[in-house]
Amino acid sequence: MLNRRIRRWKKNTEKEFRYKELTGEIISSSYNVLNTLGCGLLEKIYENSLVWELELRKKKVFPQKEFKVIYREKKVGVYYADLVIENKVIIEVKAVENIDNVHRAQLLNYLRISGLRVGLIINFAKPKLQYERLVV
Predict the structure, then answer these.
(1) Distance of CA 13 to the CA centre of its chain
(2) pTM (global) more than 0.90
(3) Are residues 105 and 132 in contact, defined by beta-carbon separation less than 8 angstroms?
(4) Residues 3-34: pLDDT tens digits?
(5) With 132 labelled, which of 5, 34, 50, 106 sits at a CA distance of 20 to 30 A?
(6) What is the pLDDT, as a whole number, of residue 78?
(7) For residue 92, what is the enclosing H or E element?
């Protein structure tokens, strides 16, 4: 019984800390962007700036990466992720009042569609950076 609990704990811990160093660097880059530009600009400006900041840090950045949406073995559409970093983390860039459940549900759907396991919602709308890390 105890061994089962330990295995479950290790599995949950590994899941929780997946790509922690990479997401930490993405969040650090986001702080640099917000501190340099300030709040109140359009999402696309923050997205482009974050791409550049991450490229300066030698990260592989895929802006507007395309993922097919499949429904019952048929392609029914396409989803474009704001950013995918190192083919490991999806970033959803926002410039909204607050991150809410709609944004969380959106990112969870994007993770499911893409097959990736870690995502960040990053909100640049306020003087203090808002972000959430979701792991599936």
Answers:
(1) 19
(2) no
(3) no
(4) 554 445 445 555 667 899 999 999 999 999 99
(5) 5
(6) 95
(7) strand 89-94
